[in-house]
TrEMBL record:
Alphabetical keyword list: Signal, Transport
Signal peptide segment: 1-19
Family label: Belongs to the bacterial solute-binding protein 9 family.
Name of the protein in its database record: Zinc ABC transporter substrate-binding protein
InterPro entries: AdhesinB, Bact_metal-bind_prot9, Lipoprotein_PsaA-like, ZnuA-like
Domain of life the protein comes from: Bacteria
Keyword Signal in annotation: yes
A Pfam family annotated for this UniProt entry: ZnuA
Taxonomic lineage: Bacteria, Bacillati, Bacillota, Clostridia, Eubacteriales
Length: 444
């Protein structure tokens, strides 16, 4: 009996000790400051700096499209317990204003504030325009709009003859009245016999092209466009012999002042941007939790060092390639393309749920044949149907996935540092598709 009693007492003590340890462990976890991040790549970068010093969580579920997700009342309640919320910004998290309104005391850190974002204006509305320039031209010569590479379909233009003593304000008013027309479709390589009070809808191609024009009367003319020249649609005014026209820009923003700036939100898909993000994360965390400053500094250095090695490795590889163009189903890779001097051709817009039109598919097929592209990239975790179809259309093409990390399937959240590994894998796939030599060591 005595032995049984001692065994029972020993078991009871062990249970109490285990319970105490478990309680202590839970208490320690509860003491960790709570930090939220918007979605997977931001979560991983914050985790790379914070390590186990913080309770880092993702605000969005891992397997949803962040372009479409909306927080619930429960999500907002959970977020109210956090010290900090890290977001990408650049209009990626469209719900962030709702968070700021409902949780005014929550510190929201927008990582893209520290980088140069890619922006687009798009076309001005009917009855409006973004660009107006004055040129002095002859009725005896032919001039042209020279377009660079673009994925846009139409640019609407009109021509206004400058009247004697006419003010700029009156010329703008006349142009606004004219630009209320839809416009006459004008294919590339055609020539416009310019008529006043007429809008011409210049049809764009997928490669550089031109539209010629000839005015009925020599003198000063205003050339008006619903688009300003920018990366999305670059163009110049030239003589037929390719000499740039001397011009005097009158207007370089919409007449209404209502230009809608569109940001390319995929700014995390650049190793250079990721390094800026890591530095910003470090600054915020070491100020918020100074006891861990040394640890955060060390972890930040290690994370940036790995990214720098990958950057240098692929900078040399891409530089040596003859072909720089690649085709993707989702417009997500412009930051990466800019970083390595590549050219992205997207089938879809900035939001991945759009479906390309038949016209877009036809243009893409022609582009692939012209540029000798044989690999179509699609978004990991999305159906490869469109990429597979296009790959078949170009003849023995391949379809390969790239991971933008906008969302990941359950169970795919690997240990800390997944962002860095995934980006290295993306770069390897691009390099091989563009004609680079396969190297097993580059895959991981």
């Amino acid at each position: 009996m005595r032995k049984k009693l001692l065994r029972c007492l020993a078991g009871l003590v062990s249970c109490c000790l285990l319970a105490a340890c478990h309680a202590t462990s839970n208490k320690e976890n509860e003491k960790k400051p709570l930090v939220y991040t918007s979605f997977f790549p931001i979560y991983d970068l914050v985790k790379q700096v914070a390590g186990d010093t913080l309770d880092v969580r993702s605000f969005m579920p891992a397997n949803v499209d962040p372009h479409m997700w909306e927080p619930t009342a429960k999500n907002m309640k959970d977020l109210s317990h956090a010290d900090i919320l890290f977001v990408n910004g650049a209009n990626m998290e469209h719900w962030v204003d709702k968070v700021k309104h409902n949780l005014p005391n929550l510190k929201v850190v927008t990582l893209s504030d520290k980088i140069r974002l890619i922006t687009y204006r798009g076309a001005a509305a009917m009855g409006d325009f973004q660009y107006m320039t004055k040129i002095n031209i002859s009725a005896d010569e032919v001039y042209k709009f020279e377009f660079g590479h673009t994925h846009e379909d139409i640019m609407r233009v009109c021509f206004v003859k400058k009247k004697p003593e006419q003010s700029v304000k009156d010329a703008i008013a006349a142009a606004k009245k004219t630009m209320d027309q839809k416009g006459k479709l004008t294919p590339q390589e055609s020539e416009i016999a310019v008529r006043e009070n007429t809008v011409y809808a210049l049809e764009m191609g997928h490669v550089s092209g031109r539209v010629y024009f000839k005015v009925p009367e020599s003198g000063e003319w205003y050339v008006v466009s619903d688009r300003i020249s920018e990366r999305l649609l670059p163009y110049t005014l030239q003589t037929k012999s390719k000499k740039l026209l001397e011009k005097e820009d009158v207007l370089t923003s919409s007449t209404s002042g209502q230009d809608k700036i569109t940001y390319d939100p995929h700014s995390w898909l650049s190793l250079n941007n990721a390094k800026f993000y890591l530095n910003y994360i470090y600054d915020v965390l070491q100020n918020a939790y100074p006891d861990n400053k040394t640890l955060y500094g060390k972890r930040r250095f290690q994370a940036i060092d790995k990214l720098t090695d990958i950057q240098a490795h692929y900078a040399e590889k891409f530089k040596a390639l003859e072909h720089k163009e690649f085709l993707v189903t989702h417009y997500a890779w412009e930051y990466l393309a800019r970083e390595y001097g590549l050219q992205q051709y997207p089938l879809q817009g900035l939001i991945s749920t759009e479906s390309p039109s038949l016209k877009t598919i036809r243009k893409a097929i022609n582009y692939c044949k012209e540029k000798k592209i044989n690999t179509i990239f699609y978004e990991t975790n999305q159906p490869p149907k469109e990429a597979k179809t296009l790959a078949a259309e170009i003849g023995n093409g391949k379809f390969v996935d790239l991971t933008s990390m906008e969302y990941v399937q359950p169970g795919k959240k690997n240990e800390t540092g997944a962002y860095t590994r995934i980006m290295a894998q993306n770069l390897h796939k691009l390099y091989v598709a563009l004609g680079g030599k396969e190297n097993e060591s580059d895959k991981n």
